[in-house]
Every structure is written in C-alpha cells, then in structure tokens.
Design goal:
The complex is a heterotrimer of chains A (248), B (666) and C (229). Chain A is an alpha+beta fold and 248 residues long. Chain A is built from 8 helices and 7 strands; from the N terminus they run ββαβββββααααααα. In chain A, helix 5 runs antiparallel to helix 6, helix 5 packs across helix 8 and helix 6 crosses helix 8. In chain B, helix 3 links the parallel strand 1 and strand 2. The chains are: A alpha+beta (248), B alpha+beta (666), C mainly alpha (229).
Chain lengths: 248, 666, 229
C-alpha cells in the first residue's frame, strides 16, 4: 500500500508545532500501525531527518503507553484496541492518514506525538489505593468471600490501562471515565469500603485541579476506550461522590 | 573455595528464612528516616520494593523510564501467579511448590532461595487481596485457581488474562500511597545509566532525564535494581520495546557479577513472525494449554496442502494429526514445561511439519475443548447433547469467558478467527532466568547494590515455570528485600546524607556524558535498529532454542565485530538535550551488544543441556536435554574490560533436600 | 458538603437537578396547553387558576424562573470550563460523529435556540400577562374586565398567537431543538446523579417517548390552532 501521512510535528513543549505530510510506500497490511511508523522513522533517519517521536512500549495493548489520535479518533478507527494493536489492513491503498497527539490542557505535548499524562498519576496519588501495609500480615485471602459478580465488575473497572483515550476523545477533555474506573474498582470490593469517602473526594478534587473538563455524558470515552470501560463507572463515581459529600 | 559467598543461613531448609529474619540486624524507625534508598524500575519487584521500603520509613527515590510506574512490563503478564495455598485441596504444599520449581528449573537454582520463595508465596495472595486486587472468584465468593505447565496441582491465581496488570496495579497503588505521603520521590521518564560506587559501596546512580536530556546525579545509602530481563537482546521477543539490560549491565561493569546469562526462556505459545517489519512478538498465555491441544499434520503431503491453502486444518481427520506433546509426554501432555514444549515445536518444524508459509508454526486447537465444555453446558442446561452445532456454540461461550481477551488479541494481529480455525503458534523469547548474581540477601557482589525480580538470577534455575515470575517479583519486593536490606543499612545510620559532589560521581557522570557525546557526534551510516536487528538474528540463529559449539564460537566473533561496527557506524539523529528516543535506544543497544557476547560465551562454556539451554551435543537418544553433574553450578561472570575477558566464578549448587534426578515429564 | 458545588461532579449534579425540575414543568405545561385542543372551557379555567393562584404566582413562578436561569447560566459556565480544558490547539481532524451523537455534542447550540425561543415566548405570553395582571391591575382574566360574562380571555389570546405562520414556524423549530436537547439531556441527567443501572436501562425507552412526545405535543397544539383558526 502507498499512503500519505499527515503528522503533527512539534519540537518541544514551547514550540508551536504544525502538521507535516509524509508519503510512505510499500506498507504491508499485516504491519501494525506502529510498525508502519517504525518504517517511516527508519526512512527519516536514513535521509538525515529527525524521526517522529511517539510513545509506545509493550506493543500488545496492555501498558497504555501508546497514544495516537488517528484520523480523528483515539487509537484509530478500530474498536476495543490500542494504537499498537491497530493493523494497516484497516486502511486502503492511497489513503491519507492524519496522526495527532492526544490533546487536552492536562496532557501537554512533550514532543511530536508524545504527551505528558502525569496528571493521571497525581489523581491516583490522591487516593487510588487501599491503605494496607505491605507486610503480608493481613487476613487470609479467602477470609472474606466476595460475590463473584462484584469481583468481576471490579475487575472490569480495573482493566483500565490509563492510556488517556477517554480524555483525548472527550470534547470537554474530561477524565471521568478514568477516575470513575479507579473509584469503582475499589468501591465494588469490601476492602475498599473503609476509605471510600475520602478516596472519592480526594481523587475528584485532584482531577478538578488538574484542569480536566466536566462530563457531559456524550459517551465518546466509552466508545473509544480500548478496554471497553463502561459509563456505569462514571455513574457509580457520581453516586459515591454525592454520598461522600453528604457524609463528609 | 569460590570467592562467591551465597550467605545461605545454616539449619534445616524450612527454618532458614525464619531464623535468618531473627538473626539479621534491624534499623530502628527513627533511624530509617535518615537513610535513602534508590530503587530503579517500578515493575512488580521494583514497585513493591519501593512501596514497602517507604512504608517502613526509608526515604525512597524510584526511577522508571516509562511515563508512569504503572507501565512497567510486568503489566503484560497474562496467565497468573502461583502460591502454595492448597485451596483446592489437591495436595499442594510449600515443599511441593519448592520441588516443582527446582525440578522445573532443571536443578540449576539455589535451594534455599527457592524454598523461601515457596514459603512467602501464600502471603502474596493475602497481601494482594487486602490491597484490592480483583482475582477471579468462584460463585461461592472464594478464589479460583487454574493449572500451569510442569505441575500436577492447581495453584495458579489469576485475573482473566491480565493477572500481571492487576498485580502491578496493586503494587502501583501501594507506591501511589507512599508518593502521596511524600515518602517516595518518583522519577518518571528517567533512565539509569550508571551506578556510582564510593569506597566500595553502591552510593548512587547517574540517570538521564528522558524529556530534557539532563544528566542527573542521585545519591543514596543503597541502590536496588528491579529492572527486568534482557530478552530484547534477541531484538524480537515478547518483552516491551523499551525493556533493556542497561541498568544490570552497568552494575556488572561496576563490579556486580552476571550469572547464567545463557539461560533464556523461549515461550512455546507466541504468535509466529509475519514479516521483516515485525517489531515484537506477542505471547498467548500458557493458560491456553489448559484447554488447547497442540498438533501438526502427521503426513508431509497434508502439510504442503495446508501451506498451499488447499486444505483447511479443520478438515484434517483426527488420525492424520500428530498431537506430538501428548504422544511424547503422556503424563503431562500439553502441559509440559515451557522449555520442553518449545523444543518439541522446533523439532517438528525443523522436520518439515510447520504449518504456515515460513514453516515455523504449529496449531493450538480448541475444537475439543469447545465440545467438552459444550457437552457439560448442554447437560447442565438440559439441552440436546448430541446437537454438535449447539454444543460447539455453548463450548465457545465457556472458552470466551476464560480467554476472551487472548482470542481477541490473536484475531486482531493475525486476522483469523481462532474460534473457527486453530491458532498458529511458535516459540519466542520471553524471559531470562539469568541475571545479576545475588546472595541470599539479594545483594550483588557490590556491597549496597541489590538486585530483585527478573533482573537477578536466583530462583528459576535454567527454566522458569509458568506463573512464577510474578510470584518472584512480588516476593522479592514485598517480603524479602525489605528485611534483608536492613541488615546492610544498619551500619549506615550514622553516615548522613551522601554527597553527589565526590570524584566518583564526577567520574561516572563524565563517562556517561562522553558515551552520549560519542553517539550523537558519530554521524554514521546506519540506524540503531539496523544493528539491533542484526544482533537479534545472530542471537536467534546461534544462541536460540538449540545451540552448538561451532555456532556459539562464530556468534562470539560476529557480535564483537558488530559491536565495533556499531560504535563506528551508528547514526543517532537529534541532540542530547531533548527528548531523543533514538539516543535512548542507542545506549540500550550498546549494552546488548556487550551482553550478547557474554551470553554466547556462557552458553559455550556450559557443555550440557539444562532447561532453556539446549546444546545439540548433549542430548539423549530421544532428543531430551542431557544435564551433566559437573555443571551443577552457577556461572557468575566478573567484568574485566571486554566480554571475552570476563572471568568465571562458580557457585556450586548443593541439593540437600531434593534428590537430583532425571527431569522427566513422560 | 460545602465544596460540592465547586466540584465538577457537584456542578453536573446541580445541572441535572434543575433539568429534572424543568422536565417536570414541561409535563405540566404541555398537559394544560393540550386541553386547549379539546376543551376551551377547561383550558380557560386551568389558565386562570395558574395565572391567579398566589402560591403558583408567588412561589412556583419565581422558582421556575430561577431554575431556568440557573440551568442556562450553569450550562454556559460548564461550557466555558470545558472549552478551557481542551487547550489551545484543536485537532486537525476529529471524527466525533464516530463515537458520540450530534445531540450530545451540541447541547449548547440546542440550548441557545431554546433560550432565544424563550425570549419570544416570554415576550408573547409572560410579559403580556404580567402587564395585564400586575401593571394594569386586571386580575379578572376576562376578555373585557368590565363585562362579567365576556368569558375568559386565555383561549382567545392563545388562538390569536398562532395565526401567524412565522410564529408557528419559529415554534416548530424551537421544539424540534428541544426534542434534540431532551434526547440527550434526559438520560444524561440520570447519569449525572449516578443512576445507571438495570432500571435506567428500562428508562431509555421512556426517555425517547418523553423527549420526542412532549415537544411533538407542543408542536401539534401550535399547528392545530394555526390551521383551525
């Protein structure tokens, strides 16, 4: 396949940045999207140009590092996958593909397609944990039976890979799906109840301070989420938060 | 007498760890505040260690090259984590987990370490549940288990196909709590480029800020490396793109011995290579072998028909299929350990029975699992058990709940529906058992320098059993290192802060900067990947699943030549004071190019076959690995300038509590 | 509790509460209006009651006005914050329609049209009512306050308003936009207060009926009076 790539190039955080066109030829449909970019970069290096910087690591859809906005969608046109799992067979010969970084005020661009998502980390520092010491001297793991349905729901929320596709897709750059998943994971388990009030208040406070927008329930996040995290998690966080506000 | 002192405590095996904990020095809580510890790497081992050390009261600085500690490659572990809980009542015990691990490692691991690992394994599950890890449960609300290769019990705890993710998020949450309290200072997007040794002790690191390119000095009273394995020396592996050996290798160059570099795990169930553009390989969890059956056609004519697309695998009659694992290893069948399964696949493919165009793939078939589960479901639901279409559909639903994400992953990559046609798989580099040599306290040969998790060598011998990597990482980080490091740090309570102005820091920083300057100014002809791919080809062809003397010797020469060529001809665009992925890669590949040679040298020395190390010269008449008594030792290499000059030190492996036998899975 | 309305979730909660209030109001409004289609008498009586009852005039009416203003002002505040959260650089290509409905992305637009309509509506009915009742002091509700059997004026006035095709056209457009606003807003309000479970799934069908039904009735009433005049 022969393609035209329109890629966002930005030297560093203070650079203005612009879209640049790159033709690329002999792309195999079996390549992953990032392998296609590898080929482009190899060509750029050989021509003496600077390769395109993009985040990636595991390349199997679990680390959450890759973060490209492809043809107007986070992680591209396919569903239930990350950028690294997107394959070129989704495109046609002659296509023009627009590649941009995940955009949000809370995700400033570091270089080209690489953004800083440490705001997600800071939200978790504020309360994304259960305060047990790691001594191992806790009760036996089977001492508290947990309803399978709740355990499964908790797991589904915990599947979030923290990639930020929800924020990138949201017209308001809201981080509610991410934070909702984190809050839900613990809210659904008995272990998480003890600190439930403080957790949700602190995490939401941090989320707001990071400059994420308000949720207007468009549902774009759920559609673009590579792990299919459900909007139910946002509703659960809303409940938890409102109840916690009344209590606290 | 070797200069290596493994510091294994005296006394009966089962009491060693308890007794050791009672005997070693402690640091009182007020003094812990005066002590700094650097932890490099934030996967299961590094993340859990950093959190626990901070919780105990030490001041921790943690480093990771990813943009968040949560992205360390532990996250990609799929199948599960072992623990000797015996919740299933199927005869499991600490001893049996210990036994399975030592046997699985082909009697090349250290008894006392493995026993300790088995001993603390149960605590890991308690700990993880307490911190909210959502393990899979049964309808009664209790934890569920599954089986993994090389064992006869069900002791693997799991969270669908994302166990590593869930455990890492658990460790990350503990770490977050400490970051929030200010006890851990987290340095994301930082890569360690050297260890600083002051007066013979590890006292800090030199790190590069990957965003600004700044070279930073960080000091501490002790340094812990939890930096993972070096599988990427093969270029293609199931490791993450950024996984590297640099931290461990720099430690080696500063005096830490490197043990058993040739012990590499080639995982049997990975998606086959599809072309030259391939950047990495994807694992399909070993748990699939619980339900999938592995086969190739019995006859060459069918192989050719399948390759030519004239025959569909589903149309091949049962009697024309060779379920070679079930045939060769009736007792363990499809659940033989990884090294055995991988070699068997290679044997069939080398004999010309590979089922894809490259001839390097075998089938992993779920058809019989669909029918088995489907019949069960039909029975439970009172439906017609003889309606094959219905039974198959019901069975597929069961399989979907167990492995749905893996099937989806396969379909996205290969573009074939594994519910309708068998998966194609082939072995790929997955894990490295070798690593930095450590004693019982997990301290390297450099005082104050510790190494934990996959980065060290200690627990898995020559082959790791499935679901044991997660166990080891967390055991080291949560339950072992936090005790043993106190013994060392007890002498440091009056040392005070370590200055970064010493000549040692200056020297280390200068050598890092010189290295970088060389790479940036080199202006050669070829990209970093060009060399990395070449190195990978040498490693895979000559140091891969089967090795022999001639190949290894030529690998040593070729790698040395490639390294020289790299330094002469590598091209790194951009500058050093910016986000520069190519520079980061170049620094990593430079170290792989040294490690690769030591790897081959170690494989050449080890004239036996053990676990993941298979020397063609040493095999039984049936083609099984032939271990040799005279190699019952750990080879620990001391750095002497060039890999070829590395000096061998042997740590003899003594088995007092387990009989060293032929490792049979028949 | 104090900080709740300073938080993103709290603001959304407040937005949802005002939305619920307005949605209930719409039901009342359309019910009364609809009586005009089949019973002039009933419509007049209800209108007179609503227009002169001190509880409704003195308490409910101000609450309603505050509710409307709050809903709009909060909507603008949220929109402004959300725009700021996006950052300064826009996507060169954004396939928003691939992951969200037009309605959900254009609540501001539909809201603004409704706001403009409310201006006209207030001018047409509310300002008129206020002038007659509280400035001219005519609380009788009669066509001719001096003639006791002249009958209530409400129905006649209503019929009068729908003579103009332009006004009916504006009316129709505004209610189509209201339908679009509700199609997203109804479920959105439930989600914002944290109701997303098996019961709200059942509510989705009802929300469609409500969101299309209520505006459709308003349109029907306007068109009916226009053509039967």
């Amino acid at each position: 396949m022969n393609l035209t790539l329109k890629i966002w190039r930005q030297k560093n955080a203070s650079d203005k940045g612009k879209m640049v066109d790159y033709p690329i030829s002999d792309v195999s449909p079996d390549m992953s999207f990032l392998e296609m970019l590898d080929v482009l970069n190899e060509q750029l290096i050989n021509k003496g140009e600077e390769p395109v910087a993009f985040d990636h690591d595991c390349r199997e859809g679990i680390c959450g590092m890759c973060s490209l906005y492809i043809n107007g969608e986070a992680h591209g046109p396919d569903r239930g996958i990350t950028t690294c799992q997107l394959h070129m067979r989704m495109f046609k010969d002659g296509d023009t593909i627009t590649i941009e970084p995940f955009r949000a005020k809370a995700f400033p661009v570091i270089k080209d397609l690489v953004v800083d998502r440490s705001s997600f980390d800071r939200i978790q520092h504020a309360g994304g944990f259960i305060s047990v010491n790691t001594s191992g001297n806790t009760i036996d793991a089977n001492a508290i039976p947990i309803n399978k349905h709740d355990a499964d729901k908790s797991f589904e929320a915990a599947m979030c890979i923290g990639c930020g596709a929800c924020v990138a897709s949201c017209k308001n750059s809201s981080a509610m799906l991410f934070v909702g998943a984190k809050v839900s994971q613990f809210a659904l388990l008995p272990q998480g109840q003890v600190e439930a009030t403080d957790r949700v208040l602190n995490m939401v406070k941090q989320m707001d301070e990071e400059g994420f927008g308000n949720c207007t329930n468009t549902g774009a996040c759920e559609v673009e989420c590579p792990k299919g995290i459900s909007l139910e998690n946002i509703a659960r966080m809303n409940r938890e938060y409102l109840a916690a506000s009344l209590k606290g | 007498m070797s200069i290596l002192d493994s510091k294994i405590p005296k006394g009966p095996l089962a009491d060693k760890w308890t007794k050791h904990k009672n005997d070693i020095n402690l640091v009182n809580p007020a003094n812990k505040r005066l002590i700094d510890v650097i932890v490099v790497g934030t996967g299961l081992a590094g993340g859990s260690a950093a959190a626990t050390l901070a919780e105990l009261g030490y001041n921790v600085k943690a480093f990771c090259f990813q943009d968040s500690p949560r992205r360390a490659h532990s996250i990609a572990a799929q199948g599960g984590i072992n623990a000797a809980k015996n919740y299933q009542g199927d005869g499991d015990s600490t001893y049996r987990l210990f036994y399975d691990t030592v046997k699985g490692g082909d009697y090349r691991s250290r008894e006392a370490n493995v026993y300790r690992l088995a001993e603390v394994s149960a605590n890991i599950i308690d700990q993880c549940v307490a911190q909210g890890v959502p393990f899979a449960r049964e309808y009664g609300g209790l934890l569920d288990n599954r089986s993994f290769g090389g064992v006869l019990v069900s002791r693997t705890f799991y969270a669908a196909g994302q166990t590593g993710q869930q455990l890492l998020l658990g460790a990350y949450s503990a770490l977050n709590r400490q970051i929030g309290r200010g006890k851990v200072k987290m340095y994301n997007r930082h890569e360690m480029l050297d260890v600083v040794i002051v007066d013979g002790k590890a006292r800090g690191i030199i790190a590069r800020n990957l965003v600004t390119g700044e070279i930073e000095r960080h000091s501490a009273h002790a340094v812990v490396l939890g930096t993972g394995g070096y599988g990427n020396v093969f270029f293609l592996s199931t490791n993450a793109m950024g996984s590297n050996v640099t931290a461990a290798w720099k430690a080696h160059k500063r005096g830490a011995f490197f043990a058993n570099p040739c012990y590499t795990q080639i995982h049997p169930t990975c998606i086959p290579v599809s072309g030259d553009h391939q950047s990495k390989l994807t694992l399909m969890s070993e748990s699939l072998r619980n339900d999938g059956r592995i086969w190739v056609p019995k006859h060459k004519k069918d192989v050719e028909a399948i390759r030519a697309g004239k025959l569909k695998p589903t149309d091949l009659a049962e009697e024309d299929r060779d379920y070679y694992l079930e045939r060769r290893y009736p007792a363990f069948g499809n659940l033989v350990p990884r090294d055995v399964a991988s070699r068997a696949a290679k044997e069939r493919c080398d004999a010309g029975y590979g089922v894809n165009a490259t001839g390097e793939a075998v089938y992993l078939d779920f058809a019989s699992a669909f029918m088995r589960y489907g019949k069960e479901q039909a029975h439970v639901k009172g439906l017609d058990e003889n309606d094959d279409a219905l039974v198959k559909k019901l069975g597929q639903e069961v399989v979907r709940t167990k492995y749905g994400n893996l099937f989806q992953m396969y379909e996205k990559i290969v573009d074939q529906n594994p519910y309708e046609t068998p998966m194609m798989i082939y072995p790929a580099v997955h894990y490295t058992m070798g690593g930095v040599w450590v004693d019982y306290n997990l301290m390297t040969t450099v005082p104050g320098l510790y190494c934990i998790g996959e980065a060290n060598f200690s627990d898995h011998g020559a082959n790791r059993l499935g679901a044991s990597a997660l166990m080891q990482g967390l055991a080291d980080g949560y339950f072992v290192l936090p005790y043993t490091i106190g013994d060392y740090l007890a002498d440091d309570i009056r040392t005070g802060p370590i200055s970064t102005d010493s000549k040692e820091f200056e020297e280390a920083e200068k050598s890092v900067k010189d290295n970088i300057a060389h790479l940036i100014n080199n202006n050669g002809k070829y990209s970093v990947d060009h060399f990395h791919k070449k190195l990978g080809k040498i490693m895979w062809n000559k140091c891969g699943m089967a090795r022999n003397e001639a190949d290894l010797k030529s690998a040593i020469t070729e790698i040395a030549e490639l390294r020289a060529e790299f330094w002469k001809d590598v091209k790194v665009p951009g500058s050093n004071d910016e986000f520069n992925e190519e520079l980061a890669k170049a620094l990593r590949v430079a170290d792989f190019l040294e490690l690769g040679e030591l790897f081959a040298k170690d494989a050449l020395l080890r004239e036996e076959s053990a676990g993941g190390h298979f020397r063609e010269e040493y095999q039984t008449a049936e083609g099984e690995a032939m271990r040799r008594k005279e190699f019952q030792y750990v080879s620990a290499w001391e750095y002497k300038g060039e890999p070829k000059d590395a000096v061998l030190h042997k740590e003899d492996l003594v088995y007092e509590n387990i009989e060293v036998k032929e490792r049979s899975y028949k | 509790m104090s900080g709740i309305f300073n938080s993103s979730i709290g603001r959304k909660f407040a937005m949802a509460l005002s939305a619920f209030f307005l949605m209930i109001f719409l039901v009342m409004h359309v019910s009364i209006n609809f009586t005009s289609v089949f019973s002039e008498e009933l419509f007049n009586e209800l209108s007179h009651f609503m227009g002169t009852n001190p509880l409704i005039q003195g308490l409910m009416q101000p609450i309603l006005i505050i509710g409307v203003i709050f809903h709009f002002v909060m909507g603008f505040i949220l929109e402004a914050q959300n725009r700021a959260s996006r950052g300064s650089v826009k996507y060169a290509k954004n396939a928003a329609s691939a992951n969200s409905s037009w309605m959900s992305r254009n609540m501001l637009l539909s809201g603004l049209v409704i706001l403009a309509f409310l201006g006209i509506h207030f001018y047409d009915f509310w300002v008129h009512e206020m002038t007659v009742k509280y400035i001219e002091g005519d609380m009788s509700g009669l066509i001719d306050p001096n003639v006791a059997d002249s009958g209530f004026r409400y129905y006649e006035e209503l019929r009068e308003k729908f003579v103009s095709p332009v006004r009916v056209g504006i009316y129709v457009v505004a209610f189509v936009l209201l339908a679009l606003h509700l199609l997203h807003g109804f479920n959105s309000a439930f989600q914002s207060v944290g109701a997303n479970n098996k019961y709200t799934k059942g509510l989705k069908g009802f929300s469609k009926v409500y969101s299309i039904g209520i505006p459709a009735l308003f349109i029907f009433i306007a068109v009916y009076h226009h053509f039967t005049h």
